[in-house]
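FORM 7B: Structural annotation worksheet

SECTION A. Query
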Amino acid sequence: QVQLEESGGGLVQPGGSLRLSCAASGRTLSNYAMSWFRRVPGKEREFVAGISLSGTIYYSPSAKGRFTISKDNAKNTVYLQMNSLKPEDTAVYYCAGDSLTVFQPSDWGKGTRVTVSS
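SECTION B. Predicted structure
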């Protein structure tokens, strides 16, 4: 069974940057669709970015232009580079994977907290 472990969260000032990492074990990511989701307190979990099996990249409207998802198959790791962070980006960010889709993944990490505040 695949295990996903996020890292890289923390406190950052508005306008700053963070890079989240998601290390996978138990499965190679070369044939796995990978996604990042986030959950803001009091709200439902929402899609942020994903890389499909074919390599197509998807972003939410709020992430497009500021966030970049990438995958390093050699390291079996997925990244989310987040720039120009805003207070509304404060959330717990989850790495997720699936054998078919980026939008309804079956495997989830435990999350890493990102706080954007001055």
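SECTION C. Observations
DSSP finds no helices and eleven strands in the chain. The mean pLDDT is 96.

SECTION D. Sign-off
Analyst initials: ____
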